[in-house]
Design a protein that fits this description.
single chain, about 350 residues, alpha/beta, Arginase, Chain A, 8-stranded parallel β-sheet, two-stranded antiparallel ribbon, 10 strands, about 40% helix, binds zinc ion
Length: about 350
């Protein structure tokens, strides 16, 4: 089993001082992978930039021109694109590398040069909309990768599972009408960005291929386990993906400062194992995990270390944040029943 590990030293060169989506996130993950001693057992690759063609599958020409012009006109200063999304000198090149890392993951896995892949990149991508930057995201990394798999390799069924605590509104918008890419998101609601209602299920040829699972604050491992059993696994089996892409955020962890869910690292490890098993069952193990959010640096670092061990089939799990008093909400069944009804599972 070969796992590709794709990253780039420039992922620390996109910074707004004091912002939680900081270069320290990358450094923390790199350090953790180093300490875990996993890197030598992975196929290490340096990201290449996404070209215009790949960007334009997901974003409008006007938006790409806007990014290019803003990068040119403000080559010495930081520009705010929305309240919390910025373009610093060099940011567009870094964003192209982050998206390119996901495209490369598709290439290496579909060419059979790796069985699966782990993308350690920033800025994240799942809030980037077709025509605008949003929520720390400039380019739709994972959505672009899904469309690349369809356009360049003729895939007809790709699953994007978004486990970041925030709804992946940008990925959803990019993929909403596409019958080839199925999008499933589990997220806290109400919370930024405010989208992702259970009734949002796709449109046109993509009708029925978007599944949103909004949860109130306070849900944890038990709810996610129930959701995997009742919704994610049955929908994945129905959709029969040829490739699975995972937008992974560690911000649903109980210690994350930007949200209020109660997942533990054991919960994350369990979900990763389930997804790896599902990929084995449905698509010869072809699965790619790409990092989205996660703002408690030690949780992020530990979670990614656990993930790497899990990819390599090693049992080296650890959770220094374990808290036996962690109570989670028990009203999940109502939500699950309602969404099962919407999707007929
Ligand atoms: Zn997030």
């Amino acid at each position: 089993m070969t796992t590709a590990l794709i990253t780039h030293p420039r992922f620390v060169q996109h910074e707004l001082p004091g912002h939680p989506e900081s270069p320290e996130r990358m450094r923390a993950v790199w350090r953790s992978l180093e300490q875990a001693g996993v890197k030598d057992r992975m196929k290490r690759m340096t990201a290449l930039p996404a070209d215009d063609e790949a960007i334009l599958r997901a974003h409008s020409p006007g938006y790409l021109e806007f990014l290019q012009r803003a990068s040119r006109d403000h080559a010495q200063q930081i520009v705010m694109l929305d309240q919390d999304t910025w373009l610093a000198p060099g940011s567009l090149e870094v964003a192209r590398l982050a998206a390119g890392a996901c495209l490369q993951a598709v290439d290496v896995v579909l060419a059979g040069d790796a069985d699966n892949a782990l993308v350690v990149a920033r800025p994240p991508g799942h809030h980037a909309c077709p025509t605008a930057a949003m929520g720390f995201c400039l380019l739709g990394n994972v959505a672009m990768a899904a469309l690349h798999a369809c356009a360049a390799y003729g895939l007809e069924r790709v699953l994007v599972a978004d486990l970041d605590v925030h709804h992946g509104n940008g990925s959803q918008d990019i993929l909403y009408r596409d019958e080839r890419v199925r999008f499933l998101s589990i997220h806290q609601s109400p919370l930024y960005p405010g989208t992702g209602a259970a009734e949002e299920t796709g449109a046109g040829p993509g009708k029925g291929y978007t599944a949103n699972i909004p949860l109130r604050a306070g849900h944890g491992d038990a709810t996610y386990r129930a959701l995997f059993a009742s919704l994610l696994t049955p929908l994945a089996r129905r959709w029969q993906p040829q490739l699975i892409l995972v937008s992974l955020g560690f911000d649903a962890h109980h210690a994350d400062p930007l949200a209020n869910m109660r997942l533990t690292l054991a919960g994350y490890d369990w979900m990763v194992k389930q997804l790896l098993d599902l990929a084995q069952e449905l698509c010869d193990g072809r699965i790619i995990f790409a990092l989205e959010g996660g703002y408690q640096l030690e949780v992020l670092a530990h979670g990614m270390g656990n993930l790497a061990h899990r990819f390599l089939g090693e049992s080296a799990f650890s959770d220094p944040f374990y808290n036996s008093d962690l109570r989670t909400r028990c009203d999940s069944q109502l939500v699950i029943d309602r969404i099962c009804q919407i999707h007929g599972v």
